[in-house]
Amino acid sequence: MNRFNLGDSDESASDFDEDSSGLPFPQPLARTSFLAHDFDPATFLSTLTNRHQSLEDLRQELRGLEQSLNKELLDLVNENYQDFLSLGTALRGGEEKIEGVKVGLLSFQRDVQSIRDKIEARRCEMEELLNEKRQLRTHADIGKDLLDYADRVEELEHRLMITDRSSPAGGTPAFDESDTESDIFSRDGGDSDDDELEDGTAPVSLKRLERHVQKYVFLSSIATRVGEQHPFLLAQRPRAAKVKSTVLLDLKAALEQASQAGKNRDARTMAILRLYKLMGEDVSAIAALKGLKL
Q: What's the domain range around 217?
């Protein structure tokens, strides 16, 4: 005996005759979904996962929507066809207005170019004036340096007694006041530079020699800055050469006296050699050392 009862076939068929109004049928696609500026087909399709609709049904619905839109567009064109044809007629005569705008733009362009040309000309003029100002300033600085050079050459000639200059009163050489005071101060202060030599004579003041060397070195720096081939410096070259030779003679005499300075001999010799080095006359220093009678 069969223990399993599959039931009556009429009862099974009645299960499919129930009301199907509660099934989740998909809603029609809204046109607004396609109006977004950033519409993306892949993103749009990903939002249709809960429509319970086959892919073929979706295709048919999209085709139907496309046909509906095409029909509406065609009806719209047919309804406004006369207005569309009259659009070309309404645009006739616009060439004159366009030409007027074009002429105005060209005139404005010419005005702008004219202003640009004036600004450029003014800029070039200002640049030339600034260059001229810089040149004048450079020439003025050179003139000051040349005057300073001449004054310093004359001062060194005065200090070294190269020229025969006399004071208005007594005819004695007019030494610079700073030199005289410095020498007196060094003697009164017991400076080792002015100690008497072994033979009892007063040595050459190293402080005065140092000032002479420094002033001559400054002369050389002015000549280098201005340019040694400047006509004024070329005219002053004999005087500068005489000043240099006189300073070198004084250094040589001081070096000879240093050999008789007793306990201060080495210190004075090194000080004089440093003055040679300051002048850049190492060769003259070597020659003077070779000529010493040690």
A: 141-163+203-293
